[in-house]
Specification:
The complex is a heterodimer of chains A (266) and B (214).
Chain A: H1 4-34, E1 40-44, E2 48-52, E3 61-66, E4 70-77, E5 80-85, E6 90-94, H2 95-98, E7 101-102, H3 116-120, E8 124-133, E9 136-148, E10 151-161, E11 165-176, E12 184-199, E13 209-225, E14 228-240, E15 253-265
Antiparallel strand pairs in A: 1-4, 1-7, 2-3, 4-5, 5-6, 8-9, 8-15, 9-10, 10-11, 11-12, 12-13, 13-14, 14-15
Chain B: H1 2-36, E1 52-53, E2 56-66, E3 72-83, E4 88-98, H2 103-108, E5 117-136, E6 140-157, E7 160-174, E8 179-192, E9 199-213
Antiparallel strand pairs in B: 2-3, 2-9, 3-4, 4-5, 5-6, 6-7, 7-8, 8-9
Classes of the chains: A alpha+beta (266), B alpha+beta (214).
Chain lengths: 266, 214
């Protein structure tokens, strides 16, 4: 019994700590999800700003808030902000108009959005591309991580549709961006991966086959606006055919791939 | 005598009135001037990150999907979208439907496909082309969008994966800021090679769904 006592105490302590941690964590999460109860308020400095019924320029203006009145920012949807006037009226204000208000520190409200500067130096990137893989249609989704503005790594998953088969491909690559601050930023890439070929059910003579591959490539990333990138690339693949994996049998397949698509960065 | 008393009274009353008015006036003034001065409220600095953004939309949908030659059956799916601007969104979707025997199979008695389920996934671009408001009676107004949407993806059917284009249109009605009702009509186009001969299939799908913004 006595030997159990410290254990019990220890368990209680751990439980207490966990509850405390969970409470703090959930409080933080709650604030994040549903917003702080402290309002974010800005002051109108233009003669008036317009409140629309919906988050878009086509929605009619139903109310105006006059100069020197305070408005509370409730939420954001794309480039529109839902605000509450002191009268209690709620409506949507465009970003352009909201930037013509003053913060409590008497500075213009700055909606610091993703910019070309952040394009030059960001951490994460997510995108999708489509194109041609040696006569087949290819679709790719990828995620990238930037170690430095000049060096990033990517993993991607692709689906390729040939006439008589389809294939799944997964690969990992390293990318070098020599000019990350340019709007048209070129890159070079090398990588490796696997490709699994599945013949269509009507062709029974072939069987599923997984092969290793390596690739080199070159491409261009173009900063569009906000957090959007257009991307086009060429890759040359060498697929090491495992079916012919006998010594002296050099039957590797070489494949050219052209792709283009869009990406977001964070 | 009487009149003198009256005069005295009047004098006293006048003095009292004057004293009171003079005494009260500064009080009244003070009160109004105090109201003019705005009480100092501690206002929070504006940080963009503190503003709750609602650019993501996730939802479920269900309806009917016709698979060419294989009947019309219930379809269920899920989708997630990111709203790039008030006009453009990017959406990924996954759905599954079952199929019936084609007339060829029924007549001949042998099965062309062993697995009767069809599922697809795709990535599409949507354009809100007709934003507006919809009215129910005289008291209710809901913001809404009519959109066109199209993209590419993969359809798995009969043991094969087929590259699939999709195109269609839909209507989104926002019940409140974060809840939306959606109706969609979509055509999924792919080449099917079940009998060793390639053929373009059009597969029409009509769905209704619920989605939330966060």
């Amino acid at each position: 019994m006595t030997s159990n006592a410290p254990l019990l105490q220890y368990t209680l302590l751990v439980l207490f700590c966990m509850t405390f941690a969970a409470r703090n964590a959930s409080a933080g999460l709650f604030d994040k999800l549903f917003g702080d109860e402290q309002p974010i308020e800005v002051r109108v400095v233009d003669p008036y700003i317009e409140l629309h019924t919906g988050a878009g320029e086509g929605y009619p203006v139903f109310h105006v808030v006059e100069k020197d009145a305070w408005i509370e920012i409730l939420k954001r949807k794309t480039d529109w902000f839902k605000v509450r006037a002191t009268s209690g009226k709620e409506g949507w204000v465009s970003r352009e108009q909201l930037e013509r208000t003053l913060t409590p520190a008497n500075e213009y409200t700055d909606i610091a959005d993703a910019t070309k500067k952040q394009f030059a130096s960001h951490r994460l990137e997510l995108g999708a591309m489509g194109g041609d893989f040696e006569g087949g249609e290819v679709m790719t989704i990828y995620g990238g991580f930037f170690f430095t503005p000049n060096l990033s790594t990517e993993i991607s998953a692709s689906k390729i549709f040939f006439k008589s088969s389809d294939a799944n491909m997964a690969d990992a690559s390293l990318l070098i961006h020599p000019y990350p601050s340019w709007r048209f930023s070129p890159f070079f890439t090398i990588g490796t991966g696997v490709i699994k070929n599945e013949p269509k059910s009507t062709l029974v003579q072939e069987k599923d086959q997984t092969d290793q591959l390596a690739h080199v490539g070159v491409g261009l990333r173009v900063y569009l606006a906000r957090r959007f990138i257009f991307r086009a690339q060429y890759k040359h693949y060498v697929i090491f055919e495992s079916a012919d994996d006998k010594p002296g049998n050099d039957n590797n397949q070489e494949i050219d791939e052209w792709k283009a698509g869009f990406a977001f960065f964070f | 005598m009487e009149s003198r008393i009256r005069v005295l009274f009047l004098k006293a009353a006048a003095t009292l009135a004057l004293v009171t008015s003079v005494g009260i006036a500064p009080l009244v003034l003070a009160e109004t001037s105090e109201q003019v001065v705005r009480p100092e409220i501690e206002r929070r600095e504006v940080h963009e990150a503190d503003i709750d953004t609602e650019d993501f939309e996730v939802g479920i949908f269900g309806g009917l999907m016709n698979v060419e030659d294989f009947g019309t059956n219930p379809v269920y799916g899920a989708r997630a979208a990111y709203h790039v601007s008030e006009y453009i969104f990017v959406e990924g979707a996954y759905a599954r439907t079952s199929t019936e025997e084609s007339s060829a199979e029924r007549l001949s008695g042998f099965q062309i496909v062993s697995d009767r389920d069809l599922d697809y996934y795709n990535l599409s671009f949507g354009f809100n082309i007709l934003p507006g408001e919809s009215f129910i009676g005289s008291k209710w107004a809901f913001t809404s969008d009519f959109y066109v949407i199209g993209g590419a993806g993969s359809t798995s059917f009969g043991g094969n994966d087929e590259f699939t284009w999709n195109a269609g249109f839909g209507y989104r009605l926002l019940v409140n800021d974060w809840l939306a009702l959606r109706v969609d009509a979509r055509d999924h186009v792919f080449n099917v090679d079940l009998l060793g001969e390639s053929k373009t299939n059009h597969n029409l799908e009509f769905t209704g769904g619920l989605s939330i913004f966060f």
